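DM from R.C. (forwarded with permission)

"hey, sorry to bug you on a friday — could you get me a structure for this? deadline for the figure draft is monday and I only need the backbone to look sensible"
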Amino acid sequence: MRTNAAIIATLAVAVGQISCPTRATISSGAGADPAGAQRQAMAEAVLDSEGGLAPGWMDFGYCPHKIAKGKPAELDLSNYGGLILARPGLSGHFGGLAFRYRAPDSFGDFLEVKLQTGAGKALARVPVERSRAKRLGDGFHEVWLPWADLNPRGEPFKRIMFFAHRPVGHELVQLDRVGFTAAPLEPARPAYFAIDCRAAARAISPLIYGVGGSDGSPWSLGATARRWGGNPTTRYNWQLNTWNVGNDWFFRNAGGKGPGYDGFLQENLEHGVKSALTVPMLGWVAKDATSYSFPVSTFGPQQATGWDLPDAGNGVSRGGKPLTPGPPTSTSVPSTPESIERWVREIREKDRKRGRSVSEYILDNEPTLWNKTHRDVHPEPTGYDELLEKTIAYASAIRRADPDAAIAGPAEWGWLGYHHSAKDVAAGVWLHPDRRLHGNVPLIPWYLHKLREHERKTGTRLLDVLDVHFYPMAKGVGIGKRGETDPATAALRIRSTRSLWDPSYVDESWIGERMRVLPLLSQWVNENYPGLGISIGEWNFGAETHMSGGLATAEALGRYGQAGLDSAYYWTQPADRSPAFWAFRAYRNFDGDGGRFLDWSLPVQSEGSHVSLFASRDAGRSRVVAVLLNFAPLSPVAAQVDVEACGEVTSARAFTYAGGKDGFKKLEVVEAHGIVSATVAPYTITVLDLPLAAATDSRSP
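My reply, with the result:
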């Protein structure tokens, strides 16, 4: 291997630098050239005389105006008129706003521009002074407004508003060539990586590329497993195919039609996707598809009711007090371990013809939240003892029906649930009375220790996989499509992945601790129940349609492989062709022809900022596939990857993704003397595919 200092010192990649004028430059007088910045790439077109409004953009009014292909837009800005152009879902950091306008000279400095949030909040008002424009020969004025003026705090926005800030006449103002210019690139940063194929490799479970939800079609995503889970499964009645949605939607029963769990299992089998099936153990399941727990007709007015069923309340009085629920039998029937045993036996009987359909049974969903999510039938907070008793009862039923089953639990919701029971949270975690009654041991290690004791006493193993959920708690990070995408929150989203693995990282939320979730779970297993697998049964880093969400997703998938997890299930499924979708494809089908991350995780030595590289090889040591992530939104990376320890690279190729729906594109890569070099753009996911001439030795994986 080469010395890092020597490699980094010699890194030199030519990156075209584009200057961006400062406000002082563009305000220097009538002879200034503010259009210099416009000559850089247009990152987001908005309005053009040739094509009219760009795809995705909408005309929100509000003055008399006309927008048509073939000529500039025409506006009547009298009476303080203005034009609003909007694009829902717009995100990103730009260099500035470019446009051209033509107006009577008598109007003087009349025009202002501002960006607005979706709610109409203005980010800043920027006057368009003649000194900020270049007059062209056809009477148009060419303008470029810097991003720092338009959006000084980097907030999310959805609209652009052009308006007259003082009275002008009815003569038409023409507007053309509107668009956001690309942010200026910073110099390329050097980064060095050394992949050690001689070191011991760690097996990567294919089940870490799992997703959740029973709806949707995750097949093009490359998902390897699908989890039947979430709050409704706690109340799932397998005999009627009904469930209760709990506090997610007015404690209503639903279902009764559709393929149900068996259709879910069959569909997964047909697509070669493994199934994880959540089995309820709360003790109550939905008795029908129509009942609900807090009828207004019975409980009186409530804070909220269903838009389609006004009698279904949310169980909270208008004064904000939670209402005492009625008997569980108003919506539910008992669900016993014996009922679950019959269910599993029925599944296994069908499996005689179709093959094993369930790869993993999960013991319910987030039990220390039952007193919130399902408080209509379980108002009392779950304690240490109840969780253990229910686990033993229901897991024993599964084991009797399916002796070879993989059983996972306790499917806890997050950090507090790892350490405390719901009784502790209700009383105040600083008091943690339930935990103190149980030796002041955190909930998860206590739970594991007790189940190991049970196995020693009975000879029956009731747990095969420790299953917990992980969601970042930092403000604005979000879940799924939700989450802020301003530069500060986007960077926070990516940093928050470090709570999974980095022992030096202090989580930037109310948690405020060094979480190191994956090493901690491994430590708890090794100390209390050696040999168990580990699963992250739900996870998500939000803003999946933004590149920061895609990068966070790709980072988490890489860490799961490094840590040797048994399984992981994204909640629920990434939006089709979103950055999070393509993050999965980086590991599952980066070239559109089945190219994927391989089966053995390799150690990587690295130096460089705001980058990660994950490396894998096949069992035959004939190929290395690596995923390189550049987390910086404005800075390219000049990367050198040392694969000398892996063997001779025969035909290196690379694919990169920088956002949008079109996926990965080929990237030029150079290999010489065991070093693979590539320059990757800001905010990108890049895959290196490196076939090898021969294995370096004959050792087994």
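R.C.: lifesaver. DSSP finds 16 helices and 37 strands in the chain.
me: no worries. Residues 585 and 592 are 9 Å apart (CA to CA).
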